[in-house]
Predict the 3D structure of the following.
Amino acid sequence: MAKENKLRVLPVFVFLTDYFYKIEVPGAYHHADKGLAILYHLVSGLSIRKMDKYIPFSTFFKIYKSFYVHNIKDLNLWIEKMNNKDLYCDNIMRIIYAKIQNPPKLKNVTCYLDGYDSRITYEDINLNKERLYSFKFKNDGLRTQFIIDINQFILYSSESEFCNDFIVLNLKMMD
């Protein structure tokens, strides 16, 4: 299964219909387009400035500020509500989706392990800098791992650790 830098239909649908349509977000675009811009920003890792390629900076900044600053309490409540639902932990739903989406020899694979390296600058003079080395960045970094289900929901995450210290991190359930 090739790694894709995109969300599947279910998480996008849940985000737009269960949360995003219920909040006020400024801008001259359709509400769905503003929600998709926020999701694209999250998935792509682009800075707010680089989103200018898709939506004017001033407009996206208003959307961003409204979403993360003005609606932060609602967002946190919604995330808490989603974490308490069995929506992410339904094994039957995962198995059915795997049988539909996966290649023939991988019909029962419902979760996968993925990692994310973050570039950092670390100034502790007592730290052995070799512990920070990221082969991806060819420089200092931290690594975080995730277990993600077939519907692209994060089920577990690790603490961020120095890249070179990483062997097998302790994964914990998202709380």
Notes: Helices lie at 9-19, 31-44, 57-70, 72-83, 91-101. The beta strands are 111-119, 133-134, 139-149, 154-158, 161-162, 171-173. Residues 122 and 140 are 8 Å apart (CA to CA).
